[in-house]
Amino acid sequence: MEAARVERPAGWPGAPLAGTGLLLLWTWVLAGAEITWGPTGGSGRLGAPASGPPALPLLSLRAVASQWPGEPMAARRTAAPGRWPRGGEMQAEARGTSPPGAPWVRGAPAPAKRGGARRSRRAQSPSALELGDTRATATAEGAKGSRPLAQGRREEVRATRTGGPAAEELRLPSTSFALTGDSAHNQAMVHWSGHNSSVILILTKLYDFNLGSVTESSLWRSTDYGATYEKLNDKVGLKTVLSYLYVNPTNKRKIMLLSDPEMESSILISSDEGATYQKYRLTFYIQSLLFHPKQEDWVLAYSLDQKLYSSMDFGRRWQVVHERITPHRFYWSVAGLDKEADLVHMEVRTADGYAHYLTCRIQECAETTRSGPFARSIDISSLVVQDEYIFIQVTTGGRASYYVSYRREAFAQIKLPKYSLPKDMHIISTDENQVFAAVQEWNQNDTYNLYISDTRGIYFTLAMENIKSSRGLMGNIIIELYEVAGVKGIFLANKKVDEQVKTYITYNKGRDWRLLQAPDSDLRGSPVHCLLPFCSLHLHLQLSENPYSSGRISSKETAPGLVVATGNIGPELSYTDIGVFISSDGGNTWRQIFDEEYNVWFLDWGGALVAMKHTPLPVRHLWVSFDEGRSWDKYGFTPLPLFVDGALVEAGVDTHIITVFGHFSLRSEWQLVKVDYNSIFSRRCTKEDYQTWHLLNQGEPCVMGERKIFKKRKPGAQCALGRDYSGSVVSEPCVCADWDFECDYGYERHGESQCVPAFWYNPASPSKDCSLGQSYLNSTGYRRIVSNNCTDGLRDKYSAKAQLCPGKAPRGLHVVTNDGRLVAEQGHNATFIILMEEGDLQRTNIQLDFGDGIAVSYANFSSIEDGIKHVYKSAGIFQVTAYAENNLGSDSAVLFLHVVCPVEHVHLRVPFVAIRNKEVNISAIVWPSQPGTLTYFWWFGNSTKPLITLDSSISFTFRAEGTNTLTVQVAAGNALIQDTKDIAVHEYFQSQLLSFSPNLDYHNPDIPEWRLDIGSVIKRALVKVTGVPEDQILVAVFPGLPTSAELFILPPKNLTERRKGHGGDLEQIVETLFNALNQNLVQFELKPGVQVIVYVTQLTLAPLVDASAGHSSSAVLMLLSVVFVGLAVFLIYKFKRKIPWINIYAQVQHDKEQEMIGSVSQSENAPKITLSDFTEPEELMDKELDTRVIGGIAAIANSENTKEIPNCTSV
Questions:
Q1: CB of 412 closer than 8 Å to CB of 458
Q2: Are strands 553-556 and 536-539 parallel, antiparallel or unpaired?
Q3: Residue with more model confidence, 900 or 184
């Protein structure tokens, strides 16, 4: 997760998981407007807004701030913030996290209108009509010179029709109020209490970008829905400069104001919707606030010095909860999941730079009362607590692992498909007991793959590949995925296909996707010739960062099936030739309503739509539609053209008010226009004004396992729904069909419905929790889509089947330290974690030998889930051995622990096959290379003492046939790195290079696990085609590209058969294998649609090595190749000093056979040191080594001839 290194702007409500991270999206509700945060970037860290709601978003001339506080909701998720208005340039705010966002700056030049949008002259479309009107009014306004209305005065416009020679104009009742004296203020925060409250609060301020602070502020309050405002500066203190306005999400009558910390550190509190205030001095500077989701008086405050404070009386008194808290990584308890309401989840950093996940109660957060739900250290900025889930990230060996806790259960490692290998990961959604994650894999740069989980958030399957991503205004990551509100299961995604971006829709949470059918006709009524899949409708899926605009796409829970979006018709998504489209049936069919960009708001439960042109020019008209955009009426809402900065639709359903913010000129005061659209509704709706509509998926009535019938107002009915409208839905379950099931973890879809195991997955392996005598659910390869309500039908066929646990011997035993390091400090706890890939956790005995004469035993794994702690009393290298055994078998694992001798990554280069009693060249390649001398520890088999050298290569002779294990550890200062390889040792063998069809290179992540799995797949294919015994074939895939491998033909294990045939017994096998390979009979399927062919490469790396006197003709040819290769090596060695780019050290040995991998030979004078060779100080002096101990492994360096040898390795 080192790929995405974009720091999240301070206070941005969602941070990805460290290194790749996981991205979390939040939806906020304020003043009746649903405000959805887009995903944010940042070192790939898993994230969520810990400090929300921060402060109200900033509003300024021709633009508004990008963030809005409020309570988190689960209405809709997207990863694409919007872009309206565009009248100013976004400037990053220099100060801290609150308000987390960047204000728009007054006086900034307005950007030119994007693209050349098509223009329509249809009477119903406002596009053409508005153009002439705007030009005329703009000219008139410029000629007259607009003057702001005086303070306390308001201009009132009643609903009238103004006649003229051409036509009458419809007018909406409106009042305009000028915030006199604030013309210099360049930022504003607006709060509408909503819920039938008539109170509006506005904080305007002058933010000096040079000083990075607020120098002036004004607080305004209205009690009549914005018709008039009162200035409250005298009530908060004439000299008090306010910086932020906070609103309690559970009781919006309670307001908090923060003073600018450059002037003073104080907080002002109101409990009567801002009518009166109490001022309290603070001893710290607040950077962000987090209100409790249930208790209205409980608040957490994060200070500039990274301390967390709590208040139980709404900010009147504060106390320290904890220090060294990671920014935005603290969370209140979740009701129903956490036992105590005052519990806080925190990410705390220790003095040594590591992070830990801790929980404690705010009144009892002492050392003895804190708990660590996760025993190991975690990556910094990776803790996310969201709904039922807690996510963390742990990076070991340069590779990130993700863990999840569902409903506060023990953490489990997240299981992505084995070779997804994420370099960046973001949590998109945790709605409906399921996790949506966007993963950027190792071979992706500007796209992400969408994965969806099971209910527990552990097992993820692929839903869509190559979803488009981009950077937002603040550097945040944008994933172009949109969930349609009001109807579950419907998502829109922009997918990159052959360098083109196309929009797809799904009705079953990503199981099936299809392109959007373009409208049948355009705005002029002319037919649209657009044939799938070459032409379709494409949409911009960015939600607005700005709560005062509708964004490029919009849908509402209160208006199911209604979707309004900006887009274009053609072969791909365009950013120039765009219009606005609407769907009334959940995305099945679409109609174009504008040929330019407009902001469209939903009024009165979606029964009416209000549109305002997206333009840098001043406007004075709104457009209203009662028939879902089929026709529009033009209404004037202000007597003078207004440069619109934003609009806010109030939360109530009876008041029917829109507040428009703007300026009559770039130097005028803020103008607040209250528009009352109640008069456009002629009456209350009756039963005859409603109709029903059926949700369909390409004509199929079952969506997410249900038939749904919705009730909505008839198009054209100009009546108001009112408060008691229920929007009732009638649904009934459907019979389960194929489209109600997705492929389970480890399975991939072939064709339309068949799910087959991936090449890396073994479906016959039960869970480790499955104990002998118990039963488990064995997957059929399918799982019903989460939240799908289908019944009967194929449900039984595809449901997992109960089977008895077969009982398995321990396999894949691993022993690691809790922090993933191979170093521990003397006298401190070293915590060991024992992991087992297969086996019976409840019936397997565990023994752990710490290597210092102390060992412990456990009856099963249940008692060691949190790790095994041990304190080493002396420094050195200790062989820690874990041993697992049950009645079916045993397994063991070894860890070599350096106590106070820290280390980092190394690649061990060894032959895959070696000849018994013949020297083998072995080398260790450190990456990245480090300056200075390195110390190498070579461990052979079960030896308890290593061979220690200062050279990166050695020569070694294996005396016994079979599989030999070699481990190398490299020490550099306080860093220790390790690699382990297995070498097959035989009396003789043959080998041949293999190559593959080019399509394999695209899927090669170039990691050891992948090479091992591919080697096994090739081996099975060879055995299947030729019938050659499995134990006589070994396939080793080489690192790097293009992908290549070496095929080894080994002698039989049976000694009797070997004596009969000796070296010649391999010739027939070689001929059989070559015939199959030359006829292209050896193939394997990597994934659906990817067939890989295995070929023979003519160049032979290793000749037949035989102990007999006679050689075949092929052996003679191979021997000649050895001579030429030996000559080449000699020439390189001879002249290597004259060729500056050659860095090869080799030694020609005529008495030794050529090895399979060109490795570095051990020179004659290279030191070979064992532990016993330097345990006494006198011996070190004899070698003229000046030793200086540095805490753990010693660093010895004083001259060119001085070598570094550690002196803390005695055991």
A1: yes
A2: unpaired
A3: 184
End-to-end CA distance of the chain: 37
Give the strand pairing for 868-871 and 633-636.
unpaired
pLDDT band at 187 (very low <50, low <70, confident <90, very high): confident
Distance CA 230, CA 270 (A): 16
Calculate the average pLDDT of the chain.
76
Q: Tokens for 1041?
A: 């590209």
Mean of the pLDDT values across residues 842-871? Answer: 86
Phi first, then psi: give them for residue 857, nearest 5 degrees. Answer: -130, 150
Query: CA 675 to CA 690: how far, in whole Å?
Result: 27
DSSP alpha helix (H) spans, 953-1007:
999-1002
The position carrying tokens 């830990």 is: 356
Spatial separation of the C-alpha atoms in residues 664 and 643, rounded to whole Å? 6
What is the C-alpha separation between 818 and 271, in angstroms, rounded? 49
**Cis ω on the peptide bond leading into residue 85 (within 30° of 0)?**
yes
From residue 1027, alpha-carbon distances to 16, 548, 1024, 1051 in Å are: 51, 71, 6, 15
Helix (H) or strand (E) run with residue 1059 in it: helix 1055-1061
- Helix then strand count (H, E) for the chain reads 9, 83
Half-sphere exposure of 1141 (CA within 13 A, CB side): 0
Over residues 598-656, the pLDDT tens digits come to 999 988 888 889 999 988 899 999 999 999 999 999 999 988 899 998 888 765 455 67
Q: What is the CA radius of gyration of the chain?
A: 35
CA 751, chain centre distance (Å): 29
pLDDT digits 0-9 by tens, 446-466: 999 999 999 999 999 999 999
Q: Which amino acid is at 959?
A: R
Give the dihedral sign, CA 739/743/744/750. positive
Count of C-beta atoms within a 10 Å radius of residue 521: 12
Q: Is 635 helix (H, G, I), strand (E, B) or coil?
A: strand
**Angle of helix 1008-1026 relative to helix 1067-1078, nearest 10 degrees?**
100
Give the highest mean pLDDT range of 234-248, 559-573, 982-996: 559-573
Q: How far is Cα of residue 248 from the mean position of the Cα atoms in its chain? A: 30
Confidence of residue 55 (pLDDT cuts 50, 70, 90): low
Q: How far apart are CA 716 and CA 688, in angstroms?
A: 12
Phi (first) and psi of residue 1207, to 5 degrees = -115, 15
Q: CA 725, CA 603: separation in Å to the nearest integer? A: 13
Q: Is the pLDDT of residue 567 over 60?
A: yes
DSSP one-letter code for 767: P
The answer to whether the beta carbons of residues 659 and 648 sit under 8 Å apart is: yes
What is the pLDDT, as a whole number, of residue 865?
72
Checking if the pLDDT of 1021 tops 60, the result is yes
Could you give the CA distance from residue 169 to residue 156 in angstroms, rounded to a whole number? 17
Q: Extract the tokens encoding 1210.
A: 């005695």
Q: What is the pLDDT of residues 299-333, one digit of tens each?
A: 999 999 999 999 999 999 999 999 999 999 999 99
The model's pTM: 0.74
Nearest to 782 by CA among 736, 745, 751: 745
Where are the strands (E) in 420-549, listed by range? 422-429, 436-441, 447-453, 460-471, 477-483, 491-497, 500-506, 514-515, 536-539
The CB density around residue 1196, as the number of other CB atoms within 10 Å, is 21
- Chain-centre distance of CA 396, in angstroms? 18
The pLDDT of residue 189: 86
Query: Tokens 């803790």 — which residue?
Result: 383
Query: Given the structure tokens 């450059």, which residue do they identify?
Result: 262
CA 362 to chain CA mean position, Å:
30
- pLDDT at position 88: 30
- The position carrying tokens 């106070």 is 900
Instruction: Tell me how far apart the alpha carbons of residues 1187 and 657 are, in angstroms, rounded to a whole number.
Output: 81
Give 246's strand partners: 256
- Reply yes or no on whether the pLDDT at 667 is more than 90: no
